[in-house]
Each structure stands twice: as C-alpha cells, then as structure tokens.
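Reply to thread "Modeling small-molecule complexes from scratch"

Following up on the discussion above, here's a worked example others can learn from. I took a protein sequence and the SMILES for zinc ion and predicted the complex. Inputs first:
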Amino acid sequence: MSADEHSKVGSLSAPQALTPSNTMSTSIPLPVPEPNADSRAYWAAAREGRLTVRQCLACGERHFMPRGQCPVCWSDALEWIDCSGFGTVYSLSIVHRAPTPDFAAITPYVTALVALEEGPRMYANIVGPGALESVIGDRVRVVFERRGEAGMQIPQFTRVAGQSGGSAA
Ligand SMILES: [Zn+2]
C-alpha cells in the first residue's frame, strides 16, 4: 500500500470506526463476499440495509440465492422484492470447530436455514443475545453485519425478543 492510499483509508482502518453501536459489526477480519453479475443488486441492497429476494414475473416463484433464471420455469423475467426481514428458523447447527482460523474468534456460532416470511429459505448466522440457545421454530429478524473496509453488509439474523423456542401459541 502506498503512503497515499494509506492516508485515504487510514481512518477506516481503526477498529472503532468500523463498529458503530447500532450494527452487528465485528472488527474480526472475516471473509467478505465478492458480488457477481447475479448477486450485485442483492449486495447493493444489503449495503442499504435491505434484504431482497428475486421473484419470477412468469410463474410468481420467489427464490434465493440470486440467479439469472427462475429455478422453476427458467424464465429470465425476474424482479427484486424487498423482504420484511422476518423469518423462522427452519434448521440450524452450532459450529464448534472454526472452518478457517479467521472464524476462531467467533466460535462457537450458529448457522441456520431461515424460512423468510416471503417464502424462500436462506442460510445465515444467528447472532446477538441468546444466539446459542436458538431452536427450530424461533422467530428471527434480519440484522446487517458489516465486513471489510468497503462497507459490505451481510444479512444475518437475530432472535426476536420475548420468545423461547417457538413456544408462542
Ligand atoms: Zn418462474
């Protein structure tokens, strides 16, 4: 890195600059997503704090991950829709062994398949208070975890307060 570059990003390199109190940000150097042609709009929305899925204009199917064609009818007539951010834990596992050294500082952590209110299911981590007590059926809401120095935000989920393990009747 040149001296010039360093002066430009210097303030962003300070951990406190990356951890505003209202985000789930960590200062741990976890992997940062690399958007491709299919996912660029998804990640751009996430940077704005919006969780989106694609909906097929031909058959109405909604899907996740972002793809260029409908997985049901193969139409490429797709639109983006904003999600409520709420969902339910469909399945989960607690990771006790870090997959790479980068993850050691946050292990153990919860990886879950979350059924969004809009229908599609997506993988994410359950983070925040009580995350390790998560169970199938928990109601969760999206939070955005900032990663890297370019403002990338990853949709994660946190348990909705005032519930215990899907027992709400
Ligand atoms: Zn379709």
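What I'd highlight from this example: DSSP finds two helices and eight strands in the chain. The first helix runs from residue 3 to 13. Questions welcome below.
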